[in-house]
Specification:
The chain is α+β, with helices and mostly antiparallel strands and about 100 residues long. Helix content is about 20%, strand content about 25%.
Length: about 100
Amino acid sequence: MARPITLVTFVLPSTLRHWVGDQAEVRVFAVAASEEEIPTLGAALDTLRRTHPSLEERLRDEYGHIRRHISMFVCGENARQFGGLSCALPPGAEIYVLPALC
């Protein structure tokens, strides 16, 4: 049996669009780690690293964590409140990337 895959959309603020050819949205496939699991935000970022490495390194630090000054909202909910990188992604999820507010 194959690992679950879902197409997700990263919606970017204007400050990050430079790294993806001035696109407002980037679509990638998130692939689950195993047949029994579901795709996560971390899996989507792993794919983003392969397709847009300059953008991904602005979203995650050298340890692979979401940078402190970046917030990601999955389907309208703050991903940090739902496990951060382990946050489950439903099919067709939209991930809004925003600079964190103080």
